[in-house]
Amino acid sequence: MKTIDLRELKVITEVDLAGAVRDGFLEVRVSQGTLLTPSARDYLSGGGLTLVQDSPSVPAQGRAAAGSSTTASSQSSNDALFRSPEASALKEEIIRAGRKLWERQYIDGNGGNISARLNDQYVICTPALHSKGDLTMDDFALVDMAGSQVAGTQLRSSEIMLHLEIYKAVPQARAVMHCHPPHATAYAITGTIPPGCMIPEHEVLVGKVALAPYETPGTAEFAQTVLPYVRDHNMILLQNHGVVCWADTVTHAEWCVEVVDAYCRIIILASHLDAPLMPIPNRKAADLLEIKKKLGLPDSRYGLRECQLCDLPEFPEGLTVRPQDRHGEEGAAGGVSSEELESIVQAITDKLMTALKIR
Hints:
Helices cover 40% and strands 14% of the residues. The longest helix has 21 residues. The relative contact order is 0.09.
């Protein structure tokens, strides 16, 4: 096998790997402790190139003993942290949550990813190209807040940057979960969000969800789509993709996914019953919001008047609520477009005319 020796490089980039492939190499040899940029790791996950780690090489001029010792010490410290009791507990919790997501059909194939904040500097995350229903204790990666993998033999998830943006924006977030629950994703692919104030449990644990615009998964642009929403929402629909949520624990994040998908399923089922949806009265919704505030959960409706708390279902379907566009511009009548307003007025006029004819 044709091998290129890159053991003298302290950092390997995607450009280095692409150059090796272009020159016909099938294997790249690097020193133990060499750092790979996130894009380099993603490039490796595409296959066609094998990475072989070796003991650090010594150049002809010699290498400073202190620098070599520092690198080895840092790697040893990362490995120890990765195998610590705290890290092991998080891995076990992620394994349980991953199995529940798969059993509930919220993920398929190798889809979805889960992470948990180990401390202020490092995050444990699931690997790329692994079913979350089959995770083992050896399948995790330790990454820093820049997205670089510092421990673990499996390649980190390509979508870890989405998680890191949330951790950096929301200090109280200790776990992030991305998956594709079918009923919630059905709303995401139509560019709509479910109406609020229908079920108390959903109002307290999740509440009003947000909708982030579509971007290619795994890119920096994709990771940044959630930034306008994560401080006021713990559940975000990803247009044409799925959902992402954060919580204080991995288990609680998984609960939020269950709650939002069950809620969306119920709304969809109710739409087939020849009757309008009946929202919780605003006064009672305010009581639920107070409970939520005491639990320390985020909600974009804190500080609003009672009459503003609940999204009234659109007339006449009553199934979905269209969010503001990505620029935050509202149409006429506080978010209702002129076309929608015209249809509402026409429908009301038709009903009045019918009533008058009956008399």
